[in-house]
Amino acid sequence: MAALLWCSAGTAAHAVTAEVARACNAQVAKAFPPRQVGNPAAGSAKGNAKAQREFFAQCVARDGKMDGDPAPGDEKK
To answer: Is 62 helix (H, G, I), strand (E, B) or coil?
Structure first.
């Protein structure tokens, strides 16, 4: 038990501000449009849930500034 507490004490958690979370949610919705508007259960037209989580995490890491990047799946080969 003490080892678990000691390991977790060394990690620093960063709080996400409401502004950054709102901006990132809007950008996730823009990058991953729904198959049916207004029906979240229909899924996304692009990507999957894992890709959406990774995009959100990357957006939070960049403080909500993701506008210059192409959306996942839009890269040219």
So the answer is: coil
